[in-house]
Design goal:
113 residues, alpha+beta, Glutaredoxin, globular
């Protein structure tokens, strides 16, 4: 089995997945990889910070169709960087913002939906 990094999903399908994930989950993290196998340090940091305060964080692996996920997420956050965290349908930020909220003692409250 080979992996072709140039394969991607249709933009409409990815946009629908993003919209649905944000709408249906209290907390959702769009990340590179999975919680068990993050594929970048920022994603690993984000899932670690979220996991300190919530066990029910939904995750979406964007590597399946990275450029299409960036485009779809930008509609919600005005950013195309990954990872991105949404709480109760609202964009919170990436790993740096989560770390800042945690340092100020605000992350637990922000995640209490």
């Amino acid at each position: 089995m080979t992996f072709d990094p140039n394969q991607s999903l249709p933009q409409e399908e990815v946009t629908e997945r993003v919209d649905q994930a944000i709408e249906e989950n209290d907390v959702v993290l769009f990340m590179k990889g999975t919680p068990m196998m993050p594929q970048c340090g920022y994603s690993e940091r984000a899932i670690g910070l979220l996991g300190q305060h919530r066990e029910d964080v939904a995750t979406v692996d964007v590597l399946e169709s990275l450029e299409e996920f960036r485009t779809a997420l930008e509609r919600h956050s005005d950013r195309e960087t990954i990872p991105q965290t949404f709480v109760d349908g609202e964009f919170v930020g990436g790993s740096d913002i989560l770390a800042q909220l945690d340092e100020r003692g605000e992350l637990a409250d922000r995640l209490a939906v």
